[in-house]
Amino acid sequence: MEIKEYIRENEERFLDELASxxxxxxxxxQPEHRADIDRCAARWCELLLAAGADEARVMPSEGNPLVYxxxxxxxxxxxxxxxxHYDVMPPEPLDLWRTPPFELTVADGRVWGRGTDDDKGQAxxxxxxxxxxxxxxxxxxxxxFIFEGEEEIGSPSLNGFLRTHRDLLRADVILxxxxxxxxxxxxxxxxxxxxxxxxxxxxxxxxRGLHSGHxxxxxxxxxxxxxRMLARVVDADGxxxxxxxxDDVEDISPEERAMIAAIPFDEEAYKAAIGxxxxxxxxxxxxxxxxSCRPSFDICGIWGGYTGEGAKTVLPSWAKAKVSxxxxxxxxxxxxxxxxxxxxxxxxxxxxxxxxxxLHGGEGYVCPLSLPAYRAAERAFAxxxxxxxLAVRRGGSIPIISDFxxxxxxxxxxxxxxxxxxxxxxxxENFRLxxxxxxxxxxxxxxxxx
Length: 450
Fold this sequence. Notes:
The protein is of the alpha+beta class. The chain is built from 13 helices and 18 strands. A hairpin with a 6-residue loop joins strand 1 and strand 2.
């Protein structure tokens, strides 16, 4: 049976199965949903066995459990390890949802509900493509699945699990559907991700809040000092001024710059969509280069002093900020974290005490375009979507991808099918049915072309 016919004949069942997953509020950020995490893991085991896996089991970790499954075809043939996650973001604010967040709703050519895209819907694409290949006798290599339940909280237990179960997870390539495309009519494959370093900074001055009339101009204001220090992190050309920050940053090759320039991009529409009059960034780079291939620094939050109604003339005792850097491949987030902390301490005046606390970090990732598995994905996308996919780098971070490479020594192909309109992490998350169908076809073709 052809893949398109198989999808048509089984789509109602596919949606029923997706509904059974969406119905489980597997919110990893909220401890009251721990039982739901366990239920969702067990449900995935049922679905993987029904799809044709030889075995599927829930495996413990230091945190939430993982789901492992495999199909053994021939030990001499390659093995593909499929990664996905079954945990979801909290649904709040609930009053902004047009449909119940944990009930699958089919309307307007889409499925609606928390996890329909990120990542239950995209994981189902992987499982249904696998099911088709098994039932039609078309699977020629081994397939393993690892689904985790902590991705939305930073995958704190995954590294330990990878180290402990390195032999179990041994494979030739990893396949992930947890990314997005440029558009429904503009298929694309993500070939690069930025890394991340994140800190909290605390500046402490006097031992209590002071009257700004009695002390202003004579005592260091922690908020003023914090703002002055943060203003020195990026120079007038948009470059990060931390010594050594660019030591491991590779220049974008002329070939890749040409690929980026070929991506359809309307800068005026981009500005209008986010309500700004002008863009800014590192001198000498385009907008698409700046937000995907170059590092960046941002103040994510800043607070201190009085922020209530009316006026209160107070010089605060302390001020805090949360700041982050997006990193590019080959930048070590731990090294950057140390360099940044040293820089902030070096510019801190003696009039205050400064603490810099690292909160989170992860490496960037690049998939070589010459990788045979990438070429198989490219061919599969071209056939399923009717045009060759663009190779794009994304500005966001998925630290687990570099963790896979470091711990398992293998590359990852990112075959994601999400769209910006899918509203992942937001109210009214959804997934287009036509994209789901083509996604199943593309993944099935990937396995065949591999």
